Amino acid sequence: MATQTATQKNPSFVLKEAGKVIYEDRPVPELPSPYDVIVKPRWTGICGSDVHYWVEGRIGHFIVEKPMVLGHESAGIVHAVGDKVKTLKVGDRVAMEPGVPCRRCLRCKDGKYNLCPDMAFAATPPYDGTLARYYTLPEDYCYQLPEHMSLEEGALIEPTAVAVHITKQAGIRPSDTVVVFGAGPVGLLCCAVAKAYGATKIVTVDINEERLKFALDYAATTSFRTARVSAEENAKNMIKECGLGSGADVIIDATGAEPCIQTAIHALRLGGTYVQGGMGKPDITFPIMAMCTKELNLKGSFRYGSGDYQTAVDLVATGRISVKQLISGKVKFDEAEKAFGDVKQGKGIKILIEGPEE
Ligand SMILES: [Zn+2]
Ligand SMILES: [Zn+2]
């Protein structure tokens, strides 16, 4: 692909339509309000959702109807600040929270702004993402990185915040036993956050042996590979092999896969808690009788809400969780399409794209 992004004013990596990406020179943004800042994103992680839009052109009822800049897992350097901005100055290094809610609706006022129906979220149609030279955000959606934290680590704050929100929904307490289905970036980070919150036993579950090995090195204490048997049998085997006694206190699903969800419900203890973090098929067969008679607590989890981004920065800044190990590759801006291809093929854990050259 021929590109001259270096000479463009605001080079942007744009999804034209399903399967087709191009580099476009977009207008340089102006500050939308005196409370906003313009950031130059320096590193951006590729997320499964970006790849999904690239391949399918849609996720559920979010449909790409006009060209959209991709990317939402970014950290960058403040380039300009509005008159009313108090806490940031030009040159500050920040993690960029990519979803800005309306701040006015009932859910926003309720403190659950991730449920805002008018959320403007980067790289979710019709809103442009962060894979560009410039990106505007309100001051309070930028989180300063301490000096010892790199911008690469800053880009990993987004999936970390997803994990922080999932574990918040799960209400993990010290000495809980926690099972996490899926050892991709979010599953791994859920293991790490559960560990930071004092969970004693953390079981990572996947079908990929290599991923399980990584998860054990990273944050899990035990691993379990599901077999092609019934969900109830998988659950029974997992409880026995992993020493989960009468079942796990908390189970997080970071896969969205039907057999995982079914196994999870059967592997929970009476009165245990289940959180759905992964997105898969919209409808599945669900063991609702077990849920009823075990009096399980079931919760969904969507993106991140009040305090989650700051908690994620703090967890990394204090060394309670490490995100460096999750970075499996780094590419230049001009190689973004190749990086998307690698993620699609399931290569590596987290690939970062560098911001455009000056
Ligand atoms: Zn993401
Ligand atoms: Zn709102």
TrEMBL record:
Domain Enoyl reductase (ER): 19-353
GO molecular function: D-xylulose reductase activity; L-iditol 2-dehydrogenase (NAD+) activity; zinc ion binding
Keyword DNA-binding: no
The organism's place on the tree of life at top rank: Eukaryota
EC code(s) of this entry: 1.1.1.9
Alphabetical keyword list: Metal-binding, NAD, Oxidoreductase, Zinc
GO biological process: sorbitol catabolic process
Cofactor names: Zn(2+)
Broad EC category: oxidoreductase
Pathway note: Carbohydrate degradation; L-arabinose degradation via L-arabinitol; D-xylulose 5-phosphate from L-arabinose (fungal route): step 4/5
Family, as annotated: Belongs to the zinc-containing alcohol dehydrogenase family.
PANTHER family per the UniProt record, alphabetical: SORBITOL DEHYDROGENASE (PTHR43161)
Function: Xylitol dehydrogenase which catalyzes the conversion of xylitol to D-xylulose. Xylose is a major component of hemicelluloses such as xylan. Most fungi utilize D-xylose via three enzymatic reactions, xylose reductase (XR), xylitol dehydrogenase (XDH), and xylulokinase, to form xylulose 5-phosphate, which enters pentose phosphate pathway.
UniProt protein name: D-xylulose reductase
Organism ancestry: Eukaryota, Fungi, Dikarya, Ascomycota, Pezizomycotina
